[in-house]
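Letters spell out the chain; backbone shape is given numerically. Take this protein:
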Amino acid sequence: MPIVTVRLAKGRDIATKRAVVEAVTNAVVSTLNVRPEWVTVLLEELDRENWSTGGELHIDKFGEGFGEQGVGKPSR
């Protein structure tokens, strides 16, 4: 039973989450030759204030809401 964890920033809508779990499930099924009902996909949503890259919190680096559906590019 494959278990896949996808970590992503909070803010994606339910349609996007459905699409990503379907795509991940399909990739695992075709790659590992297992049944879809054997594949578990866990979505872990992270607050930008609890996530950093290069020593800078994403909330500071990219601004409020960056990465959410329809929100644009970083200010840098």
About this structure: Residues 14-32 form the longest helix (19 residues). The mean pLDDT is 88. DSSP finds two helices and four strands in the chain. Strands lie at 3-9, 40-46, 52-53, 56-57.
